[in-house]
Amino acid sequence: MHLIPTPEEVVSVLRETGALRDGHFEYPTGMHSNEYLQVPLAMRYYQFQRMFSVGLSRLLRANPEIRALVPQLSIVAPATGGLPVAYGVCEALRAKQVYWGENGRGNEPLRFRQYLEQHPGEQVVLVDDILRTGNRLSQLQQLLQSRGAEVVGLAVVIYQPNPHMHDFGSLPLYYLGKLEASYYADGARCELCKRGVPLEKVWT
Hints:
Layout: H1 7-16, E1 20-26, E2 32-37, H2 39-43, H3 46-61, H4 64-69, E3 74-77, H5 83-93, E4 97-100, E5 123-131, H6 135-146, E6 150-159, E7 173-178, E8 183-184, H7 191-194, E9 200-201
Parallel strand pairs: 1-9, 3-4, 3-5, 5-6, 6-7
Antiparallel strand pairs: 1-2, 2-8
Helix pairs in contact: 3-5
């Protein structure tokens, strides 16, 4: 195993653990795809959680500007699903703290736990398991910046962009593997539907 796992090693682990599946899937949005990825299925196993978290931490440490910030660096996830990665990265980096965003009630926007306050100039790396649309990560970035924090990087295990992915501009992006899935807006445009490939609906 390399100090930083290769993309091939990462994909191999995802397939071995059932986290990455090939087929014909429909997401809750109605979008169809030929791949379905659930990184938490791989994160069930300590050795793989460690492999991914340490790998991401080494990518971050390779940036001298981020490395200099580590003692005061906050690792922030957009939801609880990204916490195994966030805690692993924080431990490997020896960063200051970890916290995460939560859904508000009803249609309320993303928020933090009560009494959790950001201080002006707080340095933050956003961490999650997957980057697809980036909607929640974008909301998290805006929430942090509105409170005076500075987001200095974005780190994910897998970069799997779809056609609706948010543009993070010049924000540095770190990832261990990239997957190029085929996406279709709906069943009427789906090549897999046209070929009669059996469809499976997925939750997320």
